[in-house]
Amino acid sequence: MAGDQIVEGSEEQAETPARTLPDQAILRSIAEQFTDIEWAPSTGQDVFMVPKDLVRDVVQAASEAGFEMLVDLTVTDYFRRRSSRFELVINLLSIQHELRLRLRAPVPVDDVRVPSVVPIYSGANFYEREAFDLFGLIFDGHPDLTRILMPDEWDGHPLRKDYGMSSVPVQFKGSHQVK
Amino acid sequence: MAHPTNPPGFLLANLDKVRHWAQTRSMFTVTFGLACCAIEMMATGAGHYDLARFGMEVFRASPRQADLMIVAGRVSQKMAPVLRQVYDQMPEPKWVISMGACASTGGMFNNYALVQGVDQIVPVDIYVPGCPPGPQSLMHGILTLHDKIMSGEIAH
Amino acid sequence: MTDQRHRDKRNVDVWLTGTEDPDWLVESTDEGAQKMASQETTARLLEQEGLAVADDRLLDEDIAPDDELMIINMGPQHPSTHGVLRINIELEGEIIRRSKPIIGYLHTGMEKTGEELTWLQGPTNVTRMDYLAPLHNELVFSLAVEQLLGIDLPPRAVAIRVLMTELNRVSSHLVALATNGMDIGAISMMLYGFRDRERILAFFEKTTGLRMNHNYIRPGGVAADLPPDWQEDIEFILEKVPPRILEYEDLLKANPIWMGRTKDVGVITLEECLAYSVTGPTLRAAGSDWDLRKAFPYSGIENYHFEVPVGEHGDVYDRYRVRIEEIWQSLSIVKQAAESMPEGDYKTDDRKIAPPPRARIDESMEALIHHFKIYTEGFQVPEGEAYVAIESPRGELGAYLVSDGGSRPLRMHMRTPSFANLQALPVMMADSMIADTVATIASLDPVLGDVDR
Ligand code: SF4
Q1: Partners of A75 in the beta sheet?
Q2: So what CATH class is B28-151?
């Protein structure tokens, strides 16, 4: 899968030379494998904007380039601020190169399926479950996508911006029995 | 359990006092540490503050052996049934201390995840304010509970 | 049959506890989707058995058939799970085959609350996550806000931050030792650990006003200067704590019981640590010298001399050794920070971010306006996003903040070390004895507030 991308990417690379690439050799080598990813540094940190279907391939490429650890995976909700509402954020860390890399992938609200990266980094497991639980993103290929922080029977995904801010009544059945 | 009001009489009245005294002298606490407050609860039990002075240093792991539950910390919606179940397993007579702002009212977290006050799911005898209440506050709460039991105010 | 059992249980409950109708009890604590199914996918089984990354099965017999396995439930109300962790453990006799941590019993919704609070109020919220290392939480949040703002701090503020966080690391590791000792049966260790922590907490209380959850480190500096006679207090700590640590080393380091219970228990390899995003003392005990204080220094910590202790075997004993060594290193940083503490301001003089000194408010209208604006509306942070991480006592603690240019974060996410470290628990526990479970959990030193947030 990743191999296909590499061939495809480097062919198209020649047609669009205007793209800015990072100076860092390792990051540059990842960026050169894909045409569709964009280097968008933010407050001095290295960030790639990645289309959501490419997430797994880019993560695979990064892991091959020496990013050993997935430190963080989270979601931001740009409710009514952007056309594609969610944004998947993956933080990678390379211990050997002392380097961090952040991938940001916009996810529209009507298609919340993203490829899971658990096959590449086992450590993404809890993080993806958390993102599913609190934001409702669906990770294709996750071995056990269940709620992790909220009770199983909970309605809704509480960290979405359109979920109410303040408290909700106690939800379990015995609560009225206070004597 | 409902208790008949104590019949007046020399013997029974004094017997009641003895009972209250016995109840306060060695209360066994069920460990119910939840969050930051639990650390302060542990600090209270440890050497520096020494809860053993009040015969309370034994934190029982089993609710069947305990008569006081100190709810130390924030109670989440997911924890609420567990808490109630532990409470129900405690034998009578039993008391509950709600320790800290979160357990008492939800504290600063007025959001979807927390039960806004543990008194919504179990009856509470003493509220200890603070975030976290220092060990002194907790001990004050415990002594207040002792006083109330001794005076018969919240006898069970 | 089940009905009969149910009725019996109910009668017992009514008799014992006076609860009239405990019907709901059983259903409402049902496991639902968290149930440990006997038929899981291969990937899931491998992960639960800790074989997803490296095949290190100790016993090469086949797993016993289903009817010889037993699933037991530990927690969430269990004295040795360090709070409200719950683990489903599948046993074959005395040996753990697979295990599944179930979390969320302390989920507080802090990331949601964080979106309601201004940038200046943010530390109040995050400090309650990892309640054994509150100052680290505040520090990482403040650093992330400062990264977005692009401001520099006066040297004294930076040095105070280092001093306080390193003291906090000592107190946190002391609790880790205390609980580790208690779980293994060394009750005196528990009393000792908490006793010495009190000395540090006394200093924290004097400086910040609270024993825990200080809200002391804030964007733009720290909330208050060190108390007037702080040098004596630090000297007192540096004089009293080290002999005690030596005493604990005497007590435990070569203690045959301690070694028997901790050596080669809960082993995790470096490879597995990396795959499961494990950081902190657990990673270092597995043989990596990865420490964010060296790799990505923050708050000028690169100016102090310290070493990164590294273990070899990745077992409980090595984690304990690493923690003890880190206490020594942190104490040395505290000493250096106290000796080289610069004079000057303890917060930035950018009046748009840090409130003016109290005395100025009486004299100057402008100061009053700034003060009012900061405490009502808060300051604005330029649009952008940043991820900043520091080395907390448990590992990489990161803050990911997104600002839309307003006075509150659009998204506040904390990358908490215990959450990631806990994923590695099945790896450590697989194929070990059930009696070693508590030692393994304790050595990971999870703080459930840090896990569930
Ligand atoms: S009251 Fe404060 S210290 Fe206690 S659990 Fe709540 S936040 Fe933590």
Answers
A1: A88
A2: alpha beta
Q: Which atom of ligand 1 is nearest the CA belonging to B101? A: 1
* CATH number for the domain that contains residue A21: 3.30.460.80
- Whether residue A97 is contained in a domain is answered as yes
Strand order in the sheet with A69-77: A38-39, A47-49, A99-107, A86-94, A69-77
Q: Average pLDDT, whole number, for chain B? A: 82
Q: Which amino acid is at C227?
A: P
B120 contacts in A (CB within 8 Å)? 170, 175, 178
Contact yes or no for B146/B138 (Cβ under 8 A): no
pLDDT tens for each residue of chain A, 179 residues long: 344 444 444 444 444 456 777 777 888 888 888 888 888 888 888 888 888 888 888 999 888 888 888 999 999 998 888 888 899 999 999 888 888 889 999 998 888 889 999 888 888 888 998 998 888 888 888 887 888 888 877 878 888 888 877 767 766 655 555 54
- Distances in Å between the Cα of B142 and the Cα atoms of B128, B154, C45 are 9, 13, 48
Find out whether C401 and C117 touch, Cβ atoms under 8 Å: no
- Closest-CA distance, A169 to chain B, in angstroms, reads 8
Q: Which residues constitute the domain of residue C242?
A: 110-150+153-347+382-452
Report residues of chain C scoring pLDDT below 50: 1, 16, 18, 20-29
Q: How many domains does chain C have?
A: 2
Q: Are B102 and B79 in contact (CB under 8 A)?
A: no
Which ipTM value was assigned to this complex? 0.84
Option in C76, C128, C449 nearest B79 (CB)? C76
Q: Which residues contact B28 (CB under 8 A, 6 or more apart)?
A: B56, B58, B59, B60, B65, B66, B67, B68
Q: Please give the pLDDT value at position A3.
A: 41
Provide, as residue numbers in chain A, all residues whose Cβ is less than 8 Å from the Cβ of B111.
158, 165-167
Rounded to the nearest 10 degrees, what angle do helices C187-208 and C230-252 cross at? 170
C276 part of a folded domain:
yes
A120 located within any domain = yes
Beta bridge partners of C395: C392
Please list every residue in chain C whose beta carbon sits closer than 8 Å to the beta carbon of residue A69: 274, 277, 279
Bridge partners, residue B95, by sequence: B68
Which tokens in the block code for residue A33? 């494998």
Nearest CB neighbour to C212, from listed B36, B89, B91? B36
